[in-house]
Amino acid sequence: MAFIAGALNAGGFLAVHRYTSHMSGIISGMADEFALGEVTLGLSLLVMLLCFIAGAMHSSWLILWARRQRLRGGYGVSMMEEAGLLLLFGLLGAGLSLHKGFFTPLTVMLLCFIMGMHNTIVTKLSGGLLRSTHMTGIATDIGIELAKLSYYGRESMPKVKDVRANRAKLRTYLLILLSFFGGGVVGALGFKHMGYSFTLPLALLLFLLGLRPVWYDVRLRFRLWRIQLESH
């Protein structure tokens, strides 16, 4: 998921000329534009923020709905829907880029919505510990674990807790960071040489990732349905 996020963020920049997952930059830019009197540009950035939040809300709603239905495929449904929207972005991106939405091109709005969904899926899956697009937090966590790893307590202090690095977390954070970077390189090259059509393999990968939990629910419900029929 971090690889796909990196590919969409870096590759999407070549397609729509905006980093659509960097909400810190979006909000800072919005503040700058409003302070400078550039109301239209400020409103454009506001629309990007709202689209990202809307994507996060929608993905969260799907996951919560699946939990209430006692389904395990809520994450899968969200991934598959995101894959469909990404496919739409790839197929219609060139045409959508010509149409202005609410102060913002429709391609940018759609990609922000997708990135909001993408980040939410990983956040919910990890219990709020990880975010696939938020490399500032990941880099901070890496620094914290490296500090623990390099810290040497020369004196024994029984009343003070020992400083120990969580090596498993450190490996996970490093893997996410490298995956995001690798995805960014691949995404930039893909969009450079293939344009919007590069989203097609990314959409297929997302679809396959989401298919497994959804297929599990389908088989389980079908099995229960057959048991009910046989009991009658």
Automatic annotation (TrEMBL):
Keyword annotations for this protein? Answer: Membrane, Transmembrane, Transmembrane helix
- Kindly list the residue ranges recorded as spanning the membrane: 42-65, 77-96, 102-122, 173-191, 197-216
Tell me the leader sequence span.
none
Q: Does the keyword Transmembrane apply?
A: yes
UniProt key word rRNA-binding: no
Q: Which InterPro entries match?
A: DUF1275
Annotated Pfam families: DUF1275 (PF06912)
PANTHER family named among the record's database cross-references: SLR0142 PROTEIN, UPF0700 TRANSMEMBRANE PROTEIN YOAK
The entry's protein name is: YoaK family protein
Which organism's genome codes for this protein? Chromobacterium aquaticum
